[in-house]
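Hi V.,

You were right to ask for the full record rather than a summary. Here it is.
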Amino acid sequence: MTQVFASPSTYIQGPGELFNSAQYIKKYGQKVLLLSDPTVLKIVGNQFIDYLKKNDFDVNLATFEGEASESEINRVTEIGKQSQDQIIIGLGGGKTADSAKAIADNLNIAAMIAPTIASTDAPCSRLSVIYTDDGQFDHYRFYKKNPEIVLLDTKIIAGAPVHLLISGIADALATNVEAIDVRRANADNMLGAKQTIVAGSIGQACEDNLFEYAELAVAANRAHVATEALNHIVEANTLLSGLGFESGGLAAAHAIHNGFTALSGEIHHLTHGEKVAYGTLVELILNGSDQKRFEKFLKFDLKLGLPTTLARLHLADASDEDLMKVATQACDENDTMKYMPTDITPEDVFAAIKAVDEYSRDFQGRSVMELD
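Predicted structure:
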């Protein structure tokens, strides 16, 4: 049995660290390819470019066009080839990070991922989720190494929209649920090997920190201040979840998320984490979790305003045929449903999707009656 654990070479987290990063970047060269979107450039990217130039870096800006698709990755790869850059910096959200890793792989150069939001566990991993140009899940792309640098400036993250931090909490909350099921199945993690003890411990630490500090961190984010609670959650959302999902493995929750891409409409206005939140509840049904554990997650999601019903997913009018499309997509042989401890069929997934909706609506109805 082969066990494999992976991580970035260097992880940095703290207030003001983006503008203290030259010391880390220069180890990989002076020619920088910066990938960032127009919104992030206005908020902090243009200031970061000035900082890099003052520190004698040759900066080549590639404006990210919004989708982690092969066509976008190839477009920016050509830019990097022409300028012979030595390191790419992905400054922004999860799709920027996933694209930057793919471009670094294409160019065989170093990668630094600098998230401006704590909404995803993508920064630390040696894989990317690749979408079609119109936003449908396409495939996972794997690399031979993790990013050289992952840097989170908590001052910037404290100023980001609160719903994005909550989305990251929801995504991270799937980490331990999926890792436990992968371990029970004796299945492979995202590195194609078995879990190490440390991977399981990281998954549990991720879950523990989320339940303990999430509400305090959300309050800090609303006030746009970096507190110790926010620091805990930024690390849980990014480092613990990133290491935990990659070396622990993915199972049903993320497969359900990918299943939702089979549908069109308002659901795709929700964030990745908001859809994963529902997928996590579905996985708790599929793995036979007891009522106490299921309600622990349900209550937590409701406190944070995450979707726990089909109506909140903008699927109130979805037909059973639509939900079977989601279930069938989630059970695609190339996705991670196969890493559950038991064989899961589309019919099982369909039933669990419906059961979560019914239980949540009933639970919320009972809670309102108790208040009355």
